[in-house]
Amino acid sequence: MPLLEPDPGTLRPGARPEGPASDRVPEDRAGGTPEPLRGDLTALLGADKVLTGISDLVRYASDASPYRFVPRAVVVPEDVDDVSAVLSYARGNGREVVFRAAGTSLNGQAQGEDILVDVRRHWKGVEVLDGGARVRIAPGTTVARVNAALARHGRVLGPDPASAAACTVGGVVANNASGMTAGTTRNAYVTLASLTFVLPSGTIVDTAEPDADERLARAEPALCAGLMELKAEIEADSALVDRVRAKYAIKNTNGYRLDAFLDGSTPVSILRGLMVGSQGTLGFVSEVVFDTLPLDRRVSAALLFFGSLPAAAAAVPLFTAAGASAVELMDGNTLRASVAVEGVPGDWAGLPGPTTALLVEFRAPDEAAQEVYEERARAVLEGLPLVSPVPSVTNSLTRDRRTVAGYWKARKAFVTAVGGARPSGTTLITEDFAVPPERLAEACEALLELQTRHGFDAAVAGHAAHGNLHFLLAFDASRPADVERYAAFMDAFCRITVERFDGSLKAEHATGRNIAPFLELEWGPMATELMWRTKRLIDPDGLLAPRVVLDRDPRAHVRGLKTIPRIEAIADPCIECGFCEPTCPSQDVTTTPRQRIVLRREMMRQPEGSPVENGLLEAYGHDAVDTCAGDSTCGLACPVGIDTGALMRAFRHARHTPREERAAALAARHFRVLEVSARLAVAAADRIGDRRVNALTRAVRKAVRPDLVPEWLPRMPGAAPSAVPRTARVGAAAVYYPACVNRVFGGPGDVSLARAVVAVSARAGKQVWIPDDVRGTCCATIWHSKGYDAGNAVMANRVVEAAWGWTAGGRLPLVVDASSCALGIAREVVPHLTPDNRELHAELRVVDSLVWAAEELLPRLTVRRALGSAVLHPTCSMRHLGDEAHLRAVAEACADEVVVPDDAGCCGFAGDRGMLHRELTESATRAEAAYVTSRDFDAHLSANRMCEVGMDHATGRDYCSVLLALEHATRPGAGRPARFP
Q: Are 463 and 358 in contact (CB under 8 A)?
């Protein structure tokens, strides 16, 4: 064991006022996957494709639903052959299989109690076909990623769920998820061109193949005959045909798509329809091809406020008739909870209780059509009983894209914002139903009365144009009385939806576990039995997702409800929605932000010192704390801003011994010596060679601690010049702060970054001054990222005091040449400042060099030569600062073609984190690097030296600051200087 390995016990939770939870993982599961299952799956697939530890099983046990089921094993297949092998094994050994992609489903569809198959990690990819008219997609690809590829062609997918940034296309097809505008005409069932799927028998079917039916008939004759018999039986019953057609006249995802038997003429075409909305119970969808739709870019929208829910609902048909592409409803509880979302007006918190808003949007292909829509909208607005209960309410139509985006941000945060505002320790239920749109107002009144009767104060929102509403209930699943109250409400709600409104109990979230007991109530015994027969025909062994969709247990919806024990305040509001996961650089290495929280909650469910808790703690240090990049992009992705990176940094601090904290503070006090030593060490390493230095650092890491000593990587840059350029304070327009990383590491060319910044600023008539005493100061991010609070406080206060003096009390801006350091000085140092220094900090103007270049220099510079092409790597700090557009603006001045890869994201290098855990950067950048290396670029640009080093390592290309490209492009003299950089 390394000498300084931290004690896992330092992360053991403290007080547990609730005591051990009834749904805690039992002690006999502490060993993880039992034999012979562990050995069988490992022999079948290889150890790298099977997760068996207790930490792995627990982190996969939770999703966005209110349920929790711990699998026996988790499999991570790479291809269809792996999936077929798992299905064959399960069939031969009486096992059960559940597929899971993003885990954003709200009804427990992605949870299993035996073999859980992760079909996200290795199942990503987009291929645009026919100029964008069609698109081929791997099932683990998010909807947002697909639409990013289609947008360049002026096309978009039909389904548009609010969780598009996180949910995968496989899940959209499996649930027939639709969203704000899809309704019944743009959903997956309608817009799916073809799909490839694996049946429970292992048979693979590609519905696009001309001879698909012939192949299926040879492989599965009984299945083909059975499907055609069911089709004939349904078609022979005219009343049943009418009933099926009527059920799908409104949005409906409850049960199997019986209209597939009416719409399909052959076994393959019937299966194509049945797979949509089957929730992983009939087969595995391995690839899909969608017909796409035009992306109308002209947008007009209004957020309109009404005095009550029924009053807002009554206005919906008027906007639908006027041609609105979306009419979204948000009740008072939703509006008030959404103030937690960045950008939402704070005065919404004071909205009167019954206030309800409609978000109405019109989309048009051109100006003329947009004006027609706006004229119709204004005519509707004139007769509405609108209210303006708080100053921010305008009740007006707008074309402003930022305003419209803010409206949608508030709407799409419905589940997470309301869930985040729920009482601590309560479980969140998300319900989803539809009624004929003309009866929406009546249904709203009935829902309000039902809530009151059962003691709930639910939040309501939804796709009002389609008669589709969602509502959220919070209750304490650890209290039997609360569970019974929920069960009584569900029984009454389901009956009133079906018997009074003939509605759908699941409009777009699919049956799942919580509506399965009510399937027959909606469909009746005959249609329900047809669904059971369909399941038995396709999956005779019942191995795929049993108890999802079909379950004869009348209390199935209260089985497996998860308790939500209280954890650290920063993460306690988490509803485990998974919106954070696509941004996380460690998602395919160890754990995601959601999983870090899920594991923490399971520790709190356990009795102190239990075998399960000990097993979780043993893995948590590496899997959760050490391999978190700490970039906090999870906080940007989370609608309510939960920053799991901050929690992991707090845990890093908790693991430090007093001696380690004192050493870190000492390093901060003597940072000038440390800085000079680091630059000399880099220079020495450059002479010695990467191979020898790498071997040395590996040996030290093994002896001391892998998370403490960085590994020297190939392609590490050489040392920066020993002196910064000479500048004058007199006449300076700004103070230039070269970050310590740029004072230690050099760049790939002959011109240093400091020289480039000084030169381009002078050319623009905006001279900058570098203080003589800049050495020995730092933005404090080194200590901040590692959780060394004492050292962080020393350096934070030192740099702010110095900056205040350099800038003459804030009269000059402080220009920082690394985005992470700009973020550090501008924001991250603040909590560690003394009260006096907080006042000094408030007077500072910290400016990222990107912003300085784009706003102050570019308008005053002459571009004399341009590169042909440049690829950009926007960093996490740029996202936090909102500087991505400035990066592009500077790059576009320097190159004819500028590209940001669709898969660009956090590189995971995070200062030196990529040198401590190189697999983090290699995994985080895999998709981005694949694109970057697929073609030649004249320049590879960013604005943060260590991120550039990480991208160097990932791509084998030389990344450098965009400021170097700007200096190259504006350098005086005719012709083209030496090759950049």
A: no
Spatial separation of the C-alpha atoms in residues 202 and 82, rounded to whole Å: 10
d(CA 459, CA 72): 36
Please tell me the distance from the alpha carbon of residue 749 to that of residue 958, in angstroms, as a whole number.
10
Please give the Cα distance from 222 to 609 (Å, whole number): 55
pLDDT 10s digits, 146-203: 999 999 999 999 999 999 999 999 999 999 999 999 999 999 999 999 999 999 999 9
Nearest 5°: CA angle at 844, between 678 and 964? 50
In sequence order, the 6+-apart residues with CB closer than 8 A to the CB of 573 are 419, 420, 421, 422, 424, 640, 642
Question: What Cα–Cα distance (Å) separates residue 44 from each residue in 101, 122, 204, 776?
Answer: 22, 18, 19, 56
- Per the structure block, which two tokens stand in for 180? 């704000």
Q: In this structure, are residues 340 and 640 in contact, taking their beta carbons and an 8 Å threshold?
A: yes
**At residue 215, what is the residue type?**
R
Statement: the pTM of the whole predicted model exceeds 0.85: yes
Average pLDDT over residues 843-851: 97
Are the beta carbons of 100 and 63 closer than 8 angstroms? yes
* The pLDDT of residue 396: 95
Q: What is the Cα Rg of the chain in Å?
A: 29
Cis upstream peptide for 345 (omega within 30°)? no
Helices (H), ranges, 832-898? 835-842, 849-851, 876-881, 884-894
Average pLDDT over residues 21-28: 96
Bridging pattern class, strands 734-737 and 468-475: unpaired
**Using CB atoms within 10 A of its CB, is residue 16 exposed (0-12), middle (13-18) or buried (19+)?**
middle
pLDDT per residue over 754-791, tens digit each? 999 999 999 999 999 999 999 999 999 999 999 999 99
Give the pLDDT confidence of 414-453 residue by residue, as tens digits.
888 888 889 999 999 999 999 999 999 899 889 989 999 9
411 DSSP assignment: H
Q: How many CB atoms lie within 10 A of CB 881?
A: 21
C-alpha–C-alpha distance, residues 720 and 834, integer Å: 33
- Beta-carbon count within 10 A of 659 CB: 9
360 phi/psi in degrees, rounded to 5 = -110, 130
